[in-house]
């Protein structure tokens, strides 16, 4: 199944839907450890659509989840609208923390290949509760950073819709994921869920 997720062209309908959603929500890329290089799907998306903000940090090498949380909070705090966070690996864990601790800042979460908290000694830091916002967890059957069984567990805990894309490694460049339009289709679904939950608030 996951092989079909590596097509390279976004559909016009999905592009139009995301551009429309960007008038209501901020779209924020939250990379994991080492940032995401130029061929990573997050960087490809940043180039393909003029809607993105991106988390920046001085040190991407130290996998301290609180460093990510603090940087993300500072990025989101000045905004006058909720953000849809598009996260990978360690960035997904930090985004869950921000969603629970600052619910007024977040509209939805796309959690791609979240890392097992124990991989970064963050077991006590990551919320074990419903995230309170629409979320979709995209998981691989052979991710070295989180088993599929554990992805199922965290999807239940966080209240996330689980998207199984088969044997896709860590859903990064090394496992063949560049532009990844299938992921943008998932993001489109998430944006629709966010609109359904927050539409009345936006209309005020």
What does this structure look like?
- The structure is a single chain.
- With 204 residues, this protein is α/β, with parallel strands linked by helices.
- It has a single domain, classed as Alpha/Beta hydrolase fold, catalytic domain (Rossmann fold), CATH 3.40.50.1820.
- It contains 6 helices and 6 strands, in the order αβαβαβαββαβα.
- It has helices at residues 12-21, 41-48, 65-76, 90-101, 148-158, 181-203, and strands at residues 26-30, 52-54, 83-88, 106-112, 135-139, 161-164.
- It has a 6-stranded parallel beta sheet with strand order 2-1-3-4-5-6, with helices on both faces.
- α1 packs parallel to α6 and α3 packs across α4 (90-101).
Describe how the helices and strands are arranged.
Layout: H1 12-21, E1 26-30, H2 41-48, E2 52-54, H3 65-76, E3 83-88, H4 90-101, E4 106-112, E5 135-139, H5 148-158, E6 161-164, H6 181-203
Parallel strand pairs: 1-2, 1-3, 3-4, 4-5, 5-6
Helix pairs in contact: 1-6, 3-4
Radius of gyration: 15 Å
Looking at the structure, the CATH topology is Rossmann fold
**Beta fraction of the residues?**
5-15%
* Strand segment tally: 6
- Looking at the overall shape, the CATH architecture is 3-Layer(aba) Sandwich
Strand order of the largest sheet: 2-1-3-4-5-6
The termini sit apart by: 42 Å
Sheet of most strands:
6 strands, parallel
Poorly predicted ranges: 1-6
Shape summary: globular
For the record, the count of structural domains works out to 1
What helical percentage do the residues reach? 25-40%
The H-level CATH homologous superfamily, spelled out, is Alpha/Beta hydrolase fold, catalytic domain
- Give the helix/strand class: alpha/beta
What's the mean pLDDT score?
93
* SSE order, one letter for each helix or strand: HEHEHEHEEHEH
Tell me the number of helical segments per DSSP (H or I, 4 or more residues long): 6
| CATH C-level label | Alpha Beta
């Amino acid at each position: 199944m996951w092989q079909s997720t590596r097509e390279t062209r976004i559909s016009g309908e999905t592009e139009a839907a995301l551009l429309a959603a960007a008038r209501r929500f901020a779209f924020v890329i939250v990379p994991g450890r080492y940032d995401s290089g130029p061929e990573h799907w997050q960087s490809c998306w940043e180039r393909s659509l003029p809607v993105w903000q991106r988390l920046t940090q001085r040190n991407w090498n130290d996998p301290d989840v609180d460093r990510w949380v603090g940087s993300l909070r500072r990025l989101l705090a000045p905004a006058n609208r909720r953000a849809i966070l598009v996260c990978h690996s360690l960035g997904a864990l930090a985004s869950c923390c921000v969603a629970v601790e600052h619910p007024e800042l977040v509209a939805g979460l796309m959690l791609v290949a979240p890392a097992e908290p124990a991989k970064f000694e963050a077991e006590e830091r990551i919320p074990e509760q419903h995230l309170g916002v629409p979320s979709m967890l995209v998981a691989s059957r052979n991710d070295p950073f989180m088993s599929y069984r554990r992805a199922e567990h965290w999807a239940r805990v966080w209240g996330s819709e689980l998207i199984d894309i088969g044997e896709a490694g860590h859903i990064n460049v090394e496992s063949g994921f560049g532009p990844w339009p299938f992921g943008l289709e998932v993001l489109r679904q998430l944006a629709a869920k966010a609109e359904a939950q927050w539409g009345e608030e936006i209309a005020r």
